[in-house]
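#struct-help
A.M.: can someone run this one for me? Single chain, 323 residues.
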Amino acid sequence: MTFDDFHFASILVSTVRNAPVLIFAAMAGLFAERSGVIDIGLEGKILASAFTSAAVAFATQNPWYGVAAGVLVSVALATLQGYVSITQKGNQLVAGIAINIAMSGLTFVVAQFFFQQGGRTPDLGQARLFDVVLPGSAAVEGIPFIGWLYGHLIGGHSVLVYLAFGLVPLVHWVLYHSRFGLRLRACGENPHAADAAGVSVERQRYMAMLVAGVLCSFSGAYLAIVQSGFFLRDMSAGAGYLALTAMVFGNWRPVYTFLGCLMFGFFGAVQIQIEGVDLPGIGRIPGSLIQMVPYVVTVIVLAGLMAKSVAPKALGTPFVKSR
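D.P.: on it. Structure tokens below:
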């Protein structure tokens, strides 16, 4: 492959396809952390839902059954995490890391037990969620720019891609223009004031964790039954941590968090494009260095923005009701 094959249009399309994994996880983390619970367990929930979605979709040959099963598993983990962090007042960081470590190992072991393919599920084939062709795409295919814009950048994606992008304004409205969002933010900023106003802080935080579990499951389902068509050990490759970084980048606000997800999706697309490309004056960059790109960007973003970001004031602090 040469530099002439390096197309910016392909990078934009790949960005749109890469971003949903981060968008779903980041929006899930927003609900949890706005309520005051640190959700570092996003990575584990992504892995658990990805494996469950792939396994059930393969067994039933129905991708929607896989999505539903992934939701159930992710919600169960979110409930367990909520029980440790909210009811038992446990260390939220330890609870999240425990879920990540447990799911990294458990998904591999269960996949190996059922499928004997080295911790991998079989290819899903027709059990995948395929791309949606928008009406009129064939008619405008030959029109310069318009055909590409309508048929490939806007159209030609899975239903979950459109759900991810449509989720952003919905989350913004829920957080800032609904009673549920107002109470949720109050629990994350000043839980004692919320409790004095008659709001059940524990109930609100549990509801936030359940919403986070549902949204995070879509991230895993997208990885397994849209992008890859199978489950592979640790296939999330740090997507949960990148989603947390996007939240810091976005200062725990949905729209800015979404922009952070697009940024990481863009660098992920660039990584794929330049792998194997002979760059002028540089030559071919080793694949191991290219794979570092999203994570180097993560370190730079955290180093530059961590001091400027203002987290919810009660984030990570267990709520103990005043007597």
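A.M.: thanks! The first strand starts at residue 278 and ends at 279.
D.P.: also worth noting: The longest helix spans residues 201-228.
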